[in-house]
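Pilot study result, target chain (102 residues):
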Amino acid sequence: MSDPWKERQWGRFRVSMTLLEETPEQVIGLIFGSMRILRAVTVVSDQTVHYEAVSPLFDAVPDCQEPPWYKIKLGKRVSDSGEPIEYSLAVEKEGCPSGRGL
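Predicted structure:
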């Protein structure tokens, strides 16, 4: 398996403070367990935390380029009774939120 640090698989994403406060620990572990966080910045104006991270989920970034923004997508499979059984994680490239950098 390749090393995302050496392959420059860097990305940026944002997470709402509400999600961080209200989401079960297993979902937070799924997100942050799949990457190494390099930087986190709290943006009070839109109640989010912007992260810069290294992960095999991200595409390689060429030298001298900024890492792209990604949208973190969480999936949830529930039982017949409505209880969560399994969570899944996917990433999708997106533009810079509100036209601002990290």
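One observation from the pilot: The CA atoms of residues 39 and 52 lie 5 Å apart. A full batch analysis is planned for the follow-on phase.
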